[in-house]
Design brief:
It is a single chain. This protein is of the alpha/beta class and 379 residues long. The chain is 30% helix and 24% strand. Strands 1, 2, 3, 4, 5, 6 and 17 form a 7-stranded mixed beta sheet that branches. The longest helix is centred in the N-terminal third of the chain and has 25 residues.
Length: 379
Amino acid sequence: MAEETFDVVVIGAGPGGYVCAIRAAQLGLKTALIEKEKTLGGTCLNVGCIPSKALLHSSEMIHFARNGAAAHGLKIEKPEVDISTLRKKTETVVSNLVRGVSMLVDKRGVKVFEGTGRLVNGTTIEISGKDKKTITAKSIVIATGSAPVELPFLPYDGKTIVHSTHALSFDKVPEKMVVVGGGAIGLELGSVWSRLGSDVTVVEFLPRIAATFDTDVTRVYERVLKRQGLKIETGTKVTGVKKAKGKTILTAEKGDKKLEFEAEKILVAVGRRTFTEGLGLEEAGVEIDEKKRIQTNERFQTNVPSIYAIGDVTSGPMLAHKAEEEGVAVAEILAGQAGQVNYGVIPNVIYTDPEVASVGVGEDEAKKEKIEINVGKFP
């Protein structure tokens, strides 16, 4: 049986991959999309950005009912949390959007293969899984995304020591929870479970939380989160975990001081790593750096001319909207157009309440780079 041939094959159906496939098909290219999971949308749609924002919204409503409604003249007697219904609501949001993505992909005539794609060479891909076959393409776009970083002394067990995906679907509110990492993921999910009634402590190695934002912003931000009930320990190094009297204890150091935190759940949110395992990059001759990120030029092209890469598998911020923009740009380049991304205007947001956001060069960075700026502040 002859191999199927396409103009473009995209490996990975996350925000970068499915957007790239849709745009390529819009521009008249015969396009295929390979995804190992049963649903499209990748981490962001299925177990990342979308379910976490749904939970954030629901938990904000609960927090308002308990703490803010009375000031508006709304009398709400002892609102309670039904975790089962909360989870169903989140799952409904995700499933509706997943169906929407599938409809858009199908409408544009993109051929979807369910399975794991592996490069045989610069134009051939072997698919293993449900749709087991070999296909060829003039151009291949790698968009396989990222996975949570695992600390060697805090291996995930999915029960006590968990990553962000696990933390989206606890079957009950943990009495005590420790979040390792004070970045966007840790602060968002920490806020969710704190609002739902958990005693949450955030442990951050750096001197401040949300370290990608300006210092004056994070100073105020930390005070607000503490007023909301989050406990925050900055400049604190996690050293391990132990059991004592049937309880789980996270151990840490803050300068010369030894700290211990009792926790029913320990959420490790110290970042994400590129996911390129099993892709056959070495066999295809694709170059990666010391962090296993795929090396590309300004046209998203690897050292193998027919292979491109976008999103979390490349350098730069691991953000869904960055991957989407790169997906559009590379599709346009493959169609002979002038696709490009202005990385200077990619926004960065933490979706707590209040939200914290930035775009462009911040005040701290401007001063460091000796860029002349005018600074305005208002309440």
